Amino acid sequence: MAYAVVAHYRCAPADETAVRAALLKMREQTRAEPANEAYEVHAVADEPGGFLLYERYTDRAGFEAHKAAEHFQELIVAMVWPLLTDRSVTFAESV
Questions:
Q1: φ and ψ at 93, to 5 degrees?
Q2: Average pLDDT, integer, range 63-84
Q3: Calpha distance 53→84 (Å, rounded)
Q4: SS3 for 14-83, per residue?
Q5: How many CB atoms lie within 10 A of CB 78?
Q6: pLDDT digit string (tens) for 23-50?
Q7: pLDDT for the residue numbered 13
Q8: Spatial CB neighbours of 54, under 8 Å, sequence gap ≥ 6
């Protein structure tokens, strides 16, 4: 069953360039993961420092493997999350 993740990240406008660069590098590495079906990064219109991510994996186990990946820990946990002022995440399974 496909597993989707939609994340809304917000950072200070001064950190937008650094967050964008890390998210684009993350997109490149995530798309190479065997269980990844999609990883899209969008800048939120009219919201400086706002990003919307859409991720899709073959199943929840694929997403869990993604979270355990070294690039997730380096780029998201260590680089992006400390720069965020707000973060919301929605998880969904296909029906």
A1: -115, 145
A2: 98
A3: 14
A4: HHHHHHHHHHHHHHHHHCCCCCEEEEEEEECCCCCCEEEEEEEECCHHHHHHHHHCHHHHHHHHHHHHHH
A5: 11
A6: 999 999 999 999 999 999 999 999 999 9
A7: 96
A8: 4, 5, 6, 38, 39, 40, 42
| pLDDT band at residue 73 using 50, 70 and 90 as cut-offs | very high
The pLDDT of residue 20 is 98
Residue keyed to tokens 């073959």? 58
Q: Is 6 helix (H, G, I), strand (E, B) or coil?
A: strand
The predicted model scores a pTM of 0.93
Q: Which residues of 79-93 are buried (b: 16+ CB within 10 A; e: fewer)?
A: bbeebbeeeeeeeee
**Pick from 74, 58, 61, 66: which is nearest to 7 by CA?**
66
Is there a contact between 3 and 62 (Cβ–Cβ < 8 Å)? yes
- State how far the Cα of 65 lies from the Cα of 8, in Å rounded to an integer: 21
